[in-house]
Amino acid sequence: MFSMTVSDFLLTMASVLLFCGVVVMGIGILTLIGKLNGKEIRTIADQTTKLAQKGITEEISGLVGNARSLIEALDQMVKTTAGIGVFLVVLGALLLVAAYVLVTRIN
Predict the structure, then answer these.
(1) What is the pLDDT along the chain (107 residues), one digit of tens a residue?
(2) CA angle 12, 15, 21 (to 5 degrees)
């Protein structure tokens, strides 16, 4: 049978937490970098701006209102993506701190 001391168990748990913390923090950083600078979001925003300008020059109020709604939705999407990225970075940092605490408890 496999026997494990308390020190071995704490070291194993700390290793797992360290690995998970690094992975989660990496995903959070990639989310912040990748999604906020996304080419698709910028393209949609540019096209929406052009659409709104066309609606203003041609006095089409419905077109301007829909363009405004689309811009607000894009803004909310960017905020949501940033929130998820920050949450993942904080969660990764907490996992790293937990791993450190476990390592310091090993005698």
Answers:
(1) 788 888 898 999 999 999 999 999 999 999 888 765 666 666 766 766 666 666 656 666 665 666 677 777 777 777 787 888 889 999 999 999 999 999 998 87
(2) 140
